[in-house]
Design goal:
globular; Amidase_dom; 15 helices; Amidase; ATP-binding; Amidase signature (AS) enzymes; EC 6.3.5.7; AS_sf
Length: 487
Amino acid sequence: MVYNNLYELTAKELRDKFLSDELSAVEIVNSFYERIEKVEDKIKSFVSLRKDIAIDEAKKLDEKKKNGEKLGRLAGIPIAIKDNILMEGQKSTSCSKILENYIGIYDSTVVKKLKEEDAIIIGITNMDEFAMGSTTKTSFHHMTSNPWDLDRVPGGSSGGAAASVAAQEIPISLGSDTGGSVRQPASFCGVVGLKPTYGRISRYGLMAFASSLDQIGTLAKTVEDVAICMNVIAGADDYDATVSKKEVPDYTKFLNKDIKGLKIGLPKEYFIEGLNTEIKNVIDNSVKALRELGAEVVEVSLPHTKYAVPTYYVLAPAEASSNLARFDGIRYGYRAKDYTDLESLYVKTRSEGFGAEVKRRIMIGTYVLSAGFYDAYFKKAQKVRTLIKQDFENVLNKVDVILTPVAPSVAFKLSDTKTPIELYLEDIFTISANLAGVPAISLPGGLVNNLPVGVQFMGRPFDEETLIKVADALEKKIGRLNLPKLD
């Protein structure tokens, strides 16, 4: 059988056709590179591709199948990774000038796991510099466009990852989420994005932004594809002491399940003045669909929600200030040429190598960690973070999951000149999950003015299976969005 548009298939469908000999790995990989060649000039999802290597890996996989060898769980599935996830021998820049020529010297744990399960990594996606931003505008390389409207942002910081899936250049893409950087672009681009519990996936090989908040996440066309990927990349790791040793369930066993009797909380603090009325209508339609599926939806309260954004923008920059101190022009990365002594080398290298947003956050972080302000800002923010976490514990003792919007607006125009504060407020509905360390998933809930709008579920720590169950049920009830053709 001949498939003219293999790129339209889900990861599950591609794997099934590969295993049943309907498609070869080479055919699958070539079809996605053909799609990339056709649409990438419009979207600019990627910063680099590894075409020759990936095709060679596909040939070896075909030979492996021919010889009757055991195949991995992701055999035949092309995958992309974000530019802050290390891969041996691959340029990894975190979309920053300060790392423009850095080559990874080892595989991150997630990349190692993908390779072990026969996934074929075909490229590296664009992002905001060091994952700081919500538009991809801070990338050193270029801006990415939203496949639904090329004049609009794809979201960020994993904007390239989300756009690559929405443009059907790849079925699964890995991103990272520090304050919403998987879920917000998933919402803007009309795909599914899961941020797991902090500690569910190893961060070994993920370039650090804010170590107590960062988490690798998955973007895909369907909840099923997210579950398939999670089965591989989740789990304990000797190289990351923050990863839980909890057993990883088979997430695909929670697909196609009845959610009758499931209790869903609607936090009143998330339906605030300023939330787009049409976005609220999308949430209301999702609530109606969930009730029709037999779920119980009740109002709940997360009273410290209003403090989430200021808390995050004290803690995250503080951690970034510490983490990014390693980029000094001495050990690796960009080095300024015109310097007179060690101090001027540091200053010139970091001034020239970092972009405006990264420098802004480093300065904020250094300020709140300084001797005179540590107690007033950083210590106080840590206390508020504890209160936010307790809010979630209290509510999730009463309900199974929490339902909220993902973002207060649809994707805005690339030309919009938003202030840093306005951009920070775009994260108002996503940040709390990172502060509390709970899992959260975004899936398309509908369209507003022909632009996708995401619905967010947040759950108990290490209970991704319930999120997958309810998100899959809602996805099947309301139907998947038809992704842009880009012809």
